[in-house]
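Fold this: Lipoprotein-releasing system ATP-binding protein LolD
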Amino acid sequence: MTDTTGTPLIELEKISRRFEHRGQELAVLRDLNFRIFAGDQVAIMGPSGAGKSTLLQLLGTLDAPTDGTMRFDGEDIFARSSSGLARFRNDQVGFVFQFHHLLPEFTALENVMMPGLIGRMRKSVAEERAMELLEKVGLKERVHHQPGELSGGEQQRVAIARALFKKPRLLLADEPTGNLDLKTGAGIHAVLRELNQSTGVTVVVVTHDPNLAETMPIRVLVDQGQLIPQIPGDARLEGRLPEELLHREPRDPRQMAVAAEEA
Ligand code: ADP
Ligand code: MG
C-alpha cells in the first residue's frame, strides 16, 4: 500500500497546457489537480486526442505547462533552469514509448547498458545491473539477442529494463502496449506491476485499452481537458476536485471505449 499521508512524489496544481494551432488556441489540459505518491501504480486512460501524452510529457518535464505548478518531492520543478531540468530527467525519470527505440545492431544487454546511460560506472558493474534488470523483466535467456530476434513484447521488456537502468523514481510509459495484442500487453502491465513491487519505482502508464487500465490500482481518465478519477473518493484527488466529479460513479471503462470508437 502506498502512503498517502506524506509529501506526494508529484503534485499538480492548476496545471494547464494550451497550444496555439493556426492562430487558434487549443486548451488540451485545464486546471488539473492531481497527486501521485511514491510507489503508486497509475493508469491514465482516455480516448485518442484526449491529452494523455501531453500529460505524460508534463510529468516527465519533456514539455512545460502554460499555467500552474508541478512539484516533485515538494520542489517546484519548472523553476529549475533547463540544465537543472535535464539533470532531473536524467536522474529521476525513465521513459518507455509505444515504439521501443532499441538499437537494432545491439544486443538486449547492450541496449540496456548504453554508453549514454552508464556514464562513469565500471563496465562490469553496469553489466551486472543490466543482467539483473533483464532477468527481472523475464529475459534472462534472451540477453544476447538483438531486437530483430525478439518478439514485440520482449522488445518492450528490453525498453523497460533500459528505462530503469539509472534507478529512476518515476517510470513513465506512453501506450507501451499500443502495438501489442491484449495478452502480450497484459504481460507488459504485469511486468510494470512487479517492478513497482520489487524496486518501489512509481509507475504511470498511459493506455487507451480499458482492459489493461483495469489491471492498475489507480486509474484516472482524461476527459475534455479534465482529470476524472475512476475510483470514488480517491485521496489523490480529494478536496481538489468539484464534489460532483469526486463522487460521480466511475463510468464503466468498457462503455467508454465504445463511446470513443463511435465518436
Ligand atoms: P492523446 O495522447 O490522448 O492521444 P495528445 O496529448 O497527444 O493526445 O494530444 C492532445 C491534443 O493536443 C490533440 O488534439 C493534439 O492535436 C494536440 N496537440 C498535442 N501536441 C500539440 C502541439 N505541439 N501543438 C499543437 N497541438 C498539439
Ligand atoms: Mg498519445
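The longest strand covers residues 24-36. The radius of gyration is 19 Å.
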